[in-house]
Write a structure and sequence with these properties.
This protein has a single domain, classed as P-loop containing nucleotide triphosphate hydrolases (Rossmann fold, 3-Layer(aba) Sandwich), CATH 3.40.50.300. The protein has ten helices and ten strands. It has helices at 43-50, 80-86, 101-111, 117-130, 134-137, 150-163, 180-193, 206-212, 230-235, 240-246; strands spanning 3-14, 17-28, 32-36, 60-68, 71-72, 87-90, 168-172, 198-202, 215-220, 223-229. The strands form two sheets. The chain has a six-stranded mixed sheet with strand order 6-7-8-3-9-10, sandwiched between helices. Strands 2-1-4-5 form a four-stranded antiparallel sheet, with helices on one face. α3 packs across α4 (117-130). The chain starts with a strand and ends in a 5-residue tail after the last helix. Bound molecules: adenosine-5'-triphosphate. Adenosine-5'-triphosphate (ATP) binds at residues 14, 19, 37, 39-45, 57, 204. One of its GO terms (molecular function) is phosphate transmembrane transporter activity. Residues 5-246 form the ABC transporter domain. InterPro entries: AAA+_ATPase, ABC_transporter-like_ATP-bd, ABC_transporter-like_CS, P-loop_NTPase, PstB-like. It comes from Tepiditoga spiralis.
């Protein structure tokens, strides 16, 4: 199945305020999809709907459909713990837990019932390698995660996300708190990860979206204005609003 996540006539509201308007999207498996658009257009809300992060906001309501491999994400009977194992998330600011590097990566495994120390060791190593961090930390796994640089912390958060073997990784502005070198490392890493995972990234940084994404989704005031292959959109946007955004005239 080429599509993994589908929004169908999806609307969402914080209280009375509608923030997503009739969204229709098919996110493609094992591709990098970038959601772009000016501040406040609803990018994060759209991303956070996918793993139901907004459940914590009591005023948040949705209508329409949001489907993950034929299953409705907002189905009352969905087991959220199992579902979130498939859909990992990485945030704007790296948020390591106040524990060692090793424990940060192994944390989720224990929740999911993996107890065998040898198995955990292996997954920790594999995840840190997958997040391109292993060589920098392999001799200090018991050190506090806070001893790492911002860029290393963000790669640690990516390692933590991939440790539980997800299918999708949602990234919400993952490099906006990082310097250019750390940003470049994360971008390269995201490209590598897309071989195994479906990546959906929200970014303010248009140049970044152009560099790394296969597909682009341009939003404006809660609506999806234009989407398609990134290369096509940047060459020849079909809609004037998209062209204005690409040319820096909006946002
Ligand atoms: N918890 C909340 N309660 C009420 N309104 C909210 C909440 N979170 C976001 N909003 C509103 O929803 C709209 C969309 O916000 P959202 O964060 O999804 O946009 P965004 O495109 O990601 O913005 P930015 O790029 O600035 O992060 C904004 O008007 C915002 O003020």
């Amino acid at each position: 199945m080429e599509n993994i996540i589908t929004f169908k006539n999806f609307n969402s509201f914080y209280g009375n305020k509608q923030v997503l308007k009739d969204i229709n999207i098919n996110f493609k498996r094992n591709k990098i999809s970038a959601i772009i658009g000016p501040s406040g257009c609803g990018k994060s809300t759209l991303l956070r709907s996918i793993n139901r992060m907004n459940d914590e906001v009591s005023s948040y309501k949705t209508t329409g459909e949001l489907i993950y491999e034929n299953k409705s994400i907002y189905d009352k009977n969905l087991d959220l713990t199992i579902f979130r194992k498939k859909v990992g998330m990485v945030f704007q600011k790296p948020v390591p837990f106040p524990m060692s590097i090793y424990e940060n990566v192994s944390f989720g495994l224990k929740i999911h019932g993996i107890k065998d120390k040898r198995k955990i060791d292996k997954i920790v190593e594999k995840s840190l390698k997958g997040a391109a961090l292993w060589n920098e930390v392999k001799d200090e796994l018991n050190k506090s995660a806070y001893s790492l640089s911002g860029g290393q912390q963000q790669r640690l958060c990516i390692a933590r996300a991939i440790a539980i073997d997800p299918e999708v990784i949602l990234l919400d502005e993952p490099t906006s708190a990082l310097d250019p070198i750390a940003t470049q490392k994360i971008e390269r890493l995201i490209e590598e990860l897309s071989e195994r995972y479906t990546i959906i990234i929200v970014t303010h940084n248009l140049a970044q979206a152009i560099r790394i994404s296969n597909y682009m989704y341009f939003m404006y005031q809660g609506e999806l204005i234009e989407s398609g292959l990134t290369s096509n959109i940047i060459k020849a946007p079909k809609i004037k609003l998209t062209e204005d955004y690409l040319n820096g005239r909006i946002g």
